[in-house]
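User: Before I run my own analysis I want an independent prediction to cross-check against. Here's the chain; please return only the structure tokens and, at the end, one sentence I can use as a sanity check.
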Amino acid sequence: MLASMDHFNNTERVMVANVPIQRAFALYHYIGDLFGWLAMAGFVFLVVLAIAWGCFLIMLGGFMFVPQEIVNGGWWSIGVGLSGWAG
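Assistant: Structure tokens:
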């Protein structure tokens, strides 16, 4: 906060503030939009990981990690997971 004034208790309605005219240190100048870019990179990484995992399951036949009774019942959808199986 550069300046403040209590206008309820002050009869003079003039506020004076000292504003710097030279560059001041700001962390944003150094890191910029780093958090936003890291969040976007993390999202892209998770999407690529999900696609790679789906391709890996398809290469294995899609049924290696699923119990045989679920596969035989037709409740397994390759790359998506269990759909229609209530447990």
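Sanity check: The first strand starts at residue 76 and ends at 77.
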